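Supplementary material to the annual report.
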Amino acid sequence: MTNSSDLAVFRAPVAGFLAWLVPGLGHFFLGHRGRGLVFLVTITATFWSGVAIGGVRATVDPQDRALWFVAQLCTGANTAVAFAMSRTLTATSQPGPKEPSKYVPPYWVSAEVGVHYTGVAGLLNLLVVLDAIALAELAGASARKQRLRAT
Amino acid sequence: MTGMCTLLALFTTGIALTGPQRLVLMLPLCLSIAVVYKTTRCELLRQVPLAALSLWVTIVIGMCAVGVALWVLFEFMI
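Predicted assembly:
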């Protein structure tokens, strides 16, 4: 039979996973709803602003911008949706006889700005994931202390 | 349906950015960095706006100072 202290062991990994999947969801899970809402709005707005500035195909590009894509992956579901959009657009747009098969963004400056926005959004969410894990660990540690004092 | 297509079109093609106006785009990015960082650091949520604004101003002034220093260095080297 499992008791509450056994389940508390899973709080930190679950909070970290939820925070990675959707920015701020880990803090919602831990009861910090205000902070979760701030993270959700700020990181999601930064990521999708970057996609809107650079265009999804130029911004989320795991082949030409592999390291930036790793940073973008830290936003979890946002990157998954953007990557799916990018793949769908690439699959539906067939290159003509004079067009190159590789996608070349029309505005390289906006593509660079978009990549920076989305990459920074990913790195900010990494900070949020670590914060959620630390909060869960701290809550677990203080609960253990209280139990020890009670016994 | 038309609204959905317009919304999707917003994300498919990048916007045209030319000239030094693109530097203005660092302001919202720095703001989001300041907001997220200060939200993790402040104990009370109501302390966040002032702390984030202060950090945002610090980041922008710091980056401008680094930019000017690099520009002066570049001018002397040429």
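The two ends of chain A are 21 Å apart (CA to CA).
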